[in-house]
Amino acid sequence: MTNPAWDVLVATCPSRTSLAKIANKWTAMIVIALNDGPLRFGALRETVDGISGKVLTETLRDLERDGILTRTMYNEMPPRVEYELTALGQTLQGPLAALGRWAEEHIELVLRAREDYDQRPDRS
């Protein structure tokens, strides 16, 4: 039995949902935040500025389900939980870090393009 040719442009391809999750802004930021090692929930929430606790919880669950990160609960008082990228999750570090760098390096050009676009006479 051979694997089908996966194609994210085909609506029924399961790789499409995987790409959509990875392309989600919160997923990308969480993977980038976990680049240097495991973090607790509170540290992740502080690092990924602007994410709500609810969205962070949902995104972490999705990433765990997809095998991108692990959730380790330590039998301590108070309980301690850490999140860490799996080997699969670590394969996302390079591409997502590159996207983050691109965004930072090109934001001035993007902002200028937006301003030019918004000021065009055909936009009124």
Please, could you describe this protein's structure?
With 124 residues, the protein is mainly alpha-helical. The chain has a domain at 14-92: Arc Repressor Mutant, subunit A. The protein has six helices and three strands, in the order ααβααββαα. A hairpin with a 5-residue loop joins strand 2 (69-74) and strand 3 (80-85). Helix 2 crosses helix 6.
Estimate the mean pLDDT confidence.
92
In angstroms, what is the radius of gyration?
Answer: 18 Å
Q: Beta fraction of the residues?
A: 5-15%
Distance between the termini: 57 Å
Number of helices: 6
Low-confidence stretches: none
What's the story with the biggest beta sheet? 3 strands, antiparallel
Helix-strand string = HHEHHEEHH
CATH level-four homologous superfamily name of the domain at 14-92: Winged helix-like DNA-binding domain superfamily/Winged helix DNA-binding domain
Instruction: Estimate the helix proportion, in percent.
Output: 55-70%
Shape: globular
Question: Any idea of the CATH topology of the domain at 14-92?
Answer: Arc Repressor Mutant, subunit A
Quickly give the structural class.
mainly alpha
Per CATH, the architecture of the domain at 14-92 is: Orthogonal Bundle
As laid out across the biggest beta sheet, the strand order is 1-3-2
Tally of strands? 3
In short:
This protein is mainly alpha-helical. It has helices at residues 14-23, 25-33, 41-47, 53-65, 87-90, 93-119, and strands at 39-40, 69-74, 80-85.
